[in-house]
């Protein structure tokens, strides 16, 4: 009977926010048994992941409806088997199941990674005619959740504003300080002219513009781009790999954190070029802070909040993410001004140490549990 179960039927078991940050922080900070329930079909494991046991309910059927129905059913069955005191879940599609668990007497915490109602409005796989009704349905479920669950965790201040302040704690997804630091990394000035992008590879995250920027640069200084992540939709890979700029891309697929750290340790700058959709403009970009933690200068979308952070810390350049010419010009500047670029990376690392690391966020997570869930633990 574990004290706390982290539950997800969508995220991978190695999800950094869920496993490396929150689950391990709760286990060490509260001295309680914490386990992770996932649905990936890779099997259960003992307490090997930093002391966190993983229970796998099996991969649900293909398709989002099958994942929603069967994944929720399997999750409910596993929670009833484990009988934890608190269920901390991470997926909006588990909202109905979580309401059932709350009615059965479990402590329930909803971890809200994204502004889902707004995110739905830009989902390519949802018919345009259905996006607004789907957004309303999720908003209604979250309204009910806000008045039913024991605690709400918001990944950004903007998300938190949608929920009752007395039940909500902001826990931002800032990097673990030394996770992406590679001992003995090549000195910045000796690195190849390579840029890095890590994350979901989608059109709305600037995938096309990054490749087009390579084409604008042409063969200048043998510039390359290393990409780590998965394509969505998969057909985007076929489209981009047919472009001339793809010849200077190395796509690594989905990689572990050690490999991410290695890639960043070899790059000249990190790219975070999300398009100006409502769900992104006021977000705190996790990847940007990870690049900063690795000591890399950043080339980022020119959103007001991002510009404020970058100008305050002097850690990079902002560009119009829809302009491949602007992106190419920023990449060229980084290569032509290596001393200034290296200093940007150094200042970015200092800013993470000072204000944008997981240390303070983990303390807020512990505070929520002690404040809201005292009757369960």
What does this structure look like?
With 377 residues, the chain is α/β, with parallel strands linked by helices. α1 packs across α15, α7 packs across α13 and α11 packs across α14. Helices cover 44% and strands 16% of the residues. The strands form 2 sheets. The protein has an 8-stranded mixed beta sheet, with helices on both faces. A 6-stranded parallel beta sheet has the order 11-10-9-12-13-14, sandwiched between helices.
What distinguishing features does this structure have?
377 residues, alpha/beta, Rossmann fold, 2 domains, 8-stranded mixed β-sheet
Describe how the helices and strands are arranged.
Elements: E1 4-7, H1 16-30, E2 34-38, E3 45-49, E4 52-56, H2 64-82, E5 86-89, H3 95-103, E6 107-112, H4 116-120, H5 128-146, E7 151-154, H6 157-160, E8 168-170, E9 194-198, H7 207-217, E10 224-228, H8 235-241, E11 249-251, H9 257-265, E12 269-272, H10 278-281, H11 286-293, E13 298-301, H12 304-313, E14 316-319, H13 324-336, H14 338-355, H15 358-372
Parallel strand pairs: 1-2, 1-5, 2-4, 5-6, 6-7, 7-8, 9-10, 9-12, 10-11, 12-13, 13-14
Antiparallel strand pairs: 3-4
């Amino acid at each position: 009977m574990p004290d706390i179960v982290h539950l997800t039927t969508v995220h991978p078991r190695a999800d950094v926010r869920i496993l490396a940050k929150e689950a391990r922080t709760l286990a060490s900070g509260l001295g309680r048994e914490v386990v992770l329930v996932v649905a990936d079909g890779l099997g259960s494991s003992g307490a090997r992941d930093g002391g966190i046991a993983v229970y796998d309910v099996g991969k649900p059927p293909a398709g989002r409806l099958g994942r929603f129905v069967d994944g929720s059913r399997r999750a409910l069955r596993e929670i009833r088997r484990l009988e934890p005191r608190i269920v901390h879940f991470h997926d909006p599609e588990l909202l109905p199941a979580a309401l059932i668990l709350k009615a059965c007497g479990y402590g329930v915490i909803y971890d809200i990674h994204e502004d889902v109602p707004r995110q739905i409005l830009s989902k390519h796989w949802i018919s345009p005619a259905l996006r607004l009704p789907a957004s309303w349905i999720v908003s209604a479920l979250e309204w009910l959740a806000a008045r039913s669950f024991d605690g709400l965790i918001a990944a950004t201040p903007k998300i938190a504003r949608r929920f009752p302040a007395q039940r909500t704690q902001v826990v931002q997804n800032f990097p673990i300080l030394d996770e992406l630091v590679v001992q003995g990394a090549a000195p910045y000035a000796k690195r190849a002219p390579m840029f890095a992008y890590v994350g979901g590879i989608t059109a709305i995250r600037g995938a096309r513009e990054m490749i087009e920027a390579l084409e604008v640069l042409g063969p200048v200084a043998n510039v390359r781009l290393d990409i780590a992540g998965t394509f969505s939709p998969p057909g985007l890979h076929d489209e981009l790999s047919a472009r001339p700029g793809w010849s200077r891309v190395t796509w690594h697929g989905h990689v572990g954190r050690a490999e991410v750290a290695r890639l960043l340790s070899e790059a000249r700058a990190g790219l975070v070029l999300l398009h100006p959709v409502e769900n992104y403009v006021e977000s705190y970009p996790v990847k940007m802070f990870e690049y900063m933690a690795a000591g890399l200068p950043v080339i980022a979308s020119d959103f007001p909040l991002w510009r404020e952070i970058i100008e305050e810390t002097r850690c990079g350049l902002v560009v119009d993410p829809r302009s491949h010419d602007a992106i190419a010009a920023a990449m060229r500047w980084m290569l032509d001004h290596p001393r200034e670029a290296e200093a940007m990376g150094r200042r970015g690392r200092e800013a993470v140490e000072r204000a944008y690391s997981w240390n303070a966020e983990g303390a807020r997570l512990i505070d929520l549990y002690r404040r809201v869930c005292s009757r369960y633990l």
